[in-house]
Amino acid sequence: MVIQHRRHGSDCSPRDTMCLYWKIATICAENEHSSLRNIKASVPQGSILGPLLYLFYVSDFPPLDLISGCFIGCYADDTAVAVRSIRAEHAVLKLQKFMPSIESWCTKWRIAINASKSQLLLIRRRYARKGFYGELKLFNEKIPLVTKAKYLGIVLNTSFKWNDHIAKIKQKTIGVINSLTPLLGKYSRLDLYKKRHIYTAIIRPIMTYASPAWAA
């Protein structure tokens, strides 16, 4: 982290001050503190400066500018690498050529990626969904091929339709409504204003999350 901080030209004094910030960490729960632990890599989670320091930490993630038809989407610690090609095998081959860059970067900055938790999703036209003989590996571990994947809370499937995402939203919304039945049901003593406030604050955000993307 100190190396990344230097790369961005930060002054020495703030850098030296924040060195203590990311060297040790402790957890507090109900006024009880755990023992101090050394932070060997990355940045502490749940901290005030954590998001800013994380941006410093991943600012030099390998680019895909030299590869046509490729795109990298990064948000916090979620990263999606997308490529476009006529054939699925060729698209996966382009992805595989990029994997050594990710492996070198992770090794350099001591970032661990669990390949088994990564997913390979092929979005194809209906007539082209039969048969696929390629594979994608990260750190010599095969990345599983899936029919749907969740990225930033949105469920994407092989046909790029939103039925799986809407089904997930419906299931989650029903569960929340059932849990709030004592407050929202006809036997609740809350007035309509308070019920509307609960709906606006808790239920509606679940139903409309990322709706500009999937409801357009």
TrEMBL record:
PROSITE patterns from the entry? RT_POL (PS50878)
Keywords from the UniProt entry: Nucleotidyltransferase, RNA-directed DNA polymerase, Transferase
Q: Where is the Reverse transcriptase domain?
A: 1-156
Decide whether keyword Oxidoreductase is in the record.
no
Highest taxon in the source lineage: Eukaryota
Cross-referenced InterPro entries, in alphabetical order? DNA/RNA_pol_sf, RT_dom
Cleavable signal peptide: none
GO MF, any single term: RNA-directed DNA polymerase activity
Protein name, UniProt field: RNA-directed DNA polymerase from mobile element jockey
